[in-house]
Amino acid sequence: MSDLLAHIDGPDDLKRLYVVQLPALADEIRAALLRYCAAKGGHIGSNLGMVEATIALHYVFDSPRDRIIFDVSHQSYVHKMLTGRRRAFTDETRFGSATGFTNPDESDHDSFVLGHTGTSVSLACGMAKARDLTGGTNNVVAVIGDGSLSSAVAFEGLNEAAELNGNLIIVFNDNEMSIAENHGGMYAGLAELRKTNGTSPHNLFRDMGLDYRYVADGNDTSALVEAFEDVKDCDHATVVHIHTVKGLGLDAAEEGRVESNHWHNPMPAPDAAPAKPNARKTYGGMAMDALAARFDAEPGLVVISPATPGSNGITRQWRAAAGRHYIDTGITEEHAVTFAAGIARAGGTPVLATSATFFQRAYDEIHQEFALNNVPGTLLVFSGGISGADNTHSGAGDVMMFGNVPGLTCLAPTSGEEMLRMLAWATGDARRPVAIRMPGEAVLAGERGGSYPRFVAATAESTDVQADDGVAAKADNGKAGEAAAAAVEMTGRSRGVGEVSVDDIAATSVDGDPWARYTITRSGSQVAILGLGNAYPLAEEAAAALDDAGVRATVIDPHQYSTIDAATLDSLRERHTVVVTVEDGQLEGGWGGKIASYYGDSPMRVLNFGARKEVTDRIPLDVLRKRYRLTAGDIADAVLSALRG
Q1: Do 6 and 222 touch, CB atoms closer than 8 A?
Q2: What is the Cα–Cα distance from 642 to 118, expressed in whole angstroms?
Q3: Which positions fall inside the Transketolase-like pyrimidine-binding domain (predicted)?
Q4: Residue 340 is inside which H or E element, if any?
Q5: Which of 21, 202, 322, 385 has the highest CB neighbour count under 10 A?
Q6: What letters, b where the CB count within 10 A reaches 16 and e where it falls short, cover 121-146?
Q7: What is the DSSP string of 563-610?
Q8: Is the distance from CB of 243 to CB of 194 less than 8 angstroms?
Q9: How many other CB atoms are found less than 10 A from the CB of residue 18?
Q10: What is the C-alpha separation between 520 and 622, in angstroms, rounded?
């Protein structure tokens, strides 16, 4: 193999090569990507498909004077390699030193921090408009694809682009896929353009007033260089439609798994035990199985995913079996929420599942079409709370966002079994808009490790568990049982909940909401610790730490973060002087502050534990927990100090 990449520290080095050398460079980069993702993990499929196109872009255009904006930017690894950051992907000692998305703090070649979909054309329109107003002469290039074109904002950008009357180049990367398969009417037209080598009269880009050219082999560097040279310095908006192969370079065993290779986890060590499913896939799969068991009896029950299905436990097998009860809307969070509201208003039962960070894009629709109209629908919110993710995928603001939408009931289960009961209620008797904050890794670890004192251990003799629909299901030593049984089988615990039974919870329903009252899971005095959702295990740990200091704390599961249970909070005044709230999200505007506000100027001392108002970027969770004092020791120390004071 050649050694061209080792001598490229910027686009000027790339331009010194001959066009005939570029395929060899592409081979080097592709091999480096495969090594990097095997060791570190990352967005392998989209990057492998864009190797040649990225080389050609930097070979023809003059970045950073010419601005190249990658939509989502999860396919920007090659761009980074060619703009001075190759060692972050080729030197194992520097793996992870560059984020997986564009970031101006890293390089002048990156214009924006990007991690969400569909915005590149609008951003490029803005940069082109500013250039024209100030007399600039540079090129502006937007790279969009990999399903991003299904986003509404992408069409808004295309609509604007046609009226700019200035240089704007839109590279449409058509790899015939989104994260999973593509969905939507426009894809038939794109298939026809591919079939006719770009000559079909059914051309959505031309119909919107944009110039257009087609490159049949988007992984041919020579063809791409020629196309980009032809459109460089154009005086109007032009689309260059390139047909690429997502995941090009994966070995034969991986070729049929392009969806799973959208994101590739690091390869485990040869002697490593098989990895267990993470919380998203575990609890998402449980929810999907519970819903699937109802499809035959409930024709209007439908699961909606705005792309990213596999991440949330919606497997290909499940989707195939669900048939018409499952809809992938593409990367269209705003449409998906509004679509769900329409289904609910017409008598259906929609369940919409995606990540907290992606629900941010639909805040208006959640507030207006969903909550304001009081439609009976359910939002499953995955990956809420602090995490070690990059700064574009943080879910730390989810409680702040959802919990302050009027009319939206927001639930925070602290176990898989409780999540299933909440899901059954939300899609049944609730008849209102409900958001369920799906349990996270802390809850899953607590359940798998058997560390929740509030659960009564199941008898060792019994392996039969009664599911919510009354049908017995078998627990099978780690294999998933049917629907609601999965949670109990996973944890090895019965359905009893500490001092308050399931029936007791239902009996305390307020305005038809069985989750409006908090549950005291452990009685004590002086100190009460309320742990919301994923932070509940930490509340238990803090109480155990206080036990060692001779203080027996009360522990409370709030179940939800959309209302305040005044009756329970008032009852604490009699025997408690310190109330502690623990949440794994942003404190400012969050849930704990509402508890502090409720007690106001009363003698009750309230200590709030949660995250600062900041966006973090790939900071390990243990570091964040220490930063935010979200450890049992920190909480216990603060409580003891308050008691002494």
Answers
A1: no
A2: 49
A3: 281-446
A4: helix 333-345
A5: 385
A6: bbbbbebbeebbeeeeebbbbbbbbb
A7: S--HHHHHHGGGTEEEEEEEEEEESTTSSHHHHHHHHTTSS-EEEEEE
A8: yes
A9: 6
A10: 28
Q: Give the phi and the psi of residue 67 in degrees, each rounded to 5.
A: -95, 125
| Rounded Cα gap, residues 237 and 159, in angstroms | 11
Say if residues 265 and 277 touch (Cβ distance below 8 Å): no
Measured CA distances, 556 to 390, 535, 630 (Å): 32, 11, 17
**Cα–Cα distance, 56 to 5 (Å, whole number):** 15
Confidence at residue 379, expressed as pLDDT on a 0 to 100 scale: 98
Coil vs helix vs strand at 405? coil
84 close to 107: Cβ distance less than 8 angstroms: yes
Burial class (CB in 10 A: 0-12, 13-18, 19+), 574: exposed
Give the model confidence (pLDDT) of 130-167 as tens digits: 999 999 999 999 999 868 888 889 999 999 999 999 99
Let me know the angle formed at the C-alpha of 122 by 120 and 125, rounded to the nearest 5 degrees: 110
532 near 398, Cβ under 8 Å? no
Q: Hey, what domains does the chain have and what are their CATH numbers? A: 5-256 (3.40.50.970), 279-445 (3.40.50.970), 488-644 (3.40.50.920)
CA distance 598 to 472: 44
pTM of the model: 0.84
Tens digit of pLDDT for each residue in 418-474? Answer: 999 999 999 999 999 999 999 999 999 999 987 665 443 322 222 222 222 222 222
